[in-house]
Specification:
Layout (H helix, E strand, L loop, with lengths): L2 H19 L12 H26 L5 H25 L6 H23 L8 H20 L5 E3 L2 E3 L1 H50 L10
Antiparallel strand pairs: 1-2
Helix pairs in contact: 1-2, 1-3, 2-3, 2-5, 3-4, 3-5, 4-6, 5-6
């Protein structure tokens, strides 16, 4: 297994650790928020590997089929685990319906990608989809920190942690819906085009058989 794929696998292995860090069994429960800080830093670290493995794969010429399969799987496991655990860890911010929306969106995209693969084409992640991922990461971190702090006060500077986390979760839900619609539209255009190509090829083949004309590959 090459280095990029090893980094991707480490992100998958890190998912149970993240769940443990956000559980009541985590041993660090100090008044100043050890659990929240450790879990936040850990989630940020494994999120960074999402960009590192792709960069290294392209830089080293090690883009593999396994990597293309594992990378989106690792992303979905990481995000889904974060939101599912946060439903119990900080229900004030992460509502169950929001988590269902996030996971449902991922199932939808995965299903569309599977159909696209069987039809012989792929749909690349859009800029909106990449923005959605960044917002999801930010939201998870904000929700973790909000479990301990309502606001941070640094002299005259006040950072409203609770307000930021609340705004982030609903903005993330909105972007998730928009990106899902954007992905579906891109899929629909490609699948419609593929269907037209198949009908055209079928029509040419039928006409050729009727006239006993040899059908060459370029006609199909």
């Amino acid at each position: 297994m090459n280095l990029p794929n090893s980094i991707t696998m480490s992100r998958i292995v890190a998912v149970p650790l993240l769940i443990w860090m956000l559980s009541p069994r985590f041993p660090f429960h100090a008044a100043w928020g050890e659990q929240e800080i450790i879990a936040s830093l850990f989630f940020i670290a494994i999120s960074i590997t999402d960009g590192v493995d792709g960069y290294l794969a392209r830089r080293r010429g090690q883009v593999t089929t396994m990597g293309m399969l594992l990378d989106p799987l690792a992303d979905k496991l990481m995000i889904s685990a974060g939101f599912i655990t946060l439903v119990e860890f900080n229900p004030h911010i992460v509502k169950a319906w929001i988590t269902i929306l996030v996971i449902g969106r991922e199932f939808l995209v995965t299903g569309l990608r599977s159909i696209a693969s069987t039809e012989g084409f792929t749909i690349q992640a859009s800029d909106l989809g990449k923005l959605k991922t960044v917002i999801q990461i930010f939201t998870v971190v904000a929700a973790i920190l909000d479990n301990r702090w309502h606001e941070w006060i640094f002299g005259w500077l006040i950072i409203p942690v609770d307000w930021i986390a609340t705004a982030a979760i609903y903005f993330m839900a909105l972007v998730s819906l928009i990106s899902a619609a954007d992905y579906f539209m891109a899929f629909w255009k490609r699948i419609d085009h593929a269907s037209k190509d198949r009908r055209k090829a079928s029509f040419v083949l039928t006409r050729a058989k009727e006239k006993n004309i040899p059908v060459t590959n370029h006609l199909l």
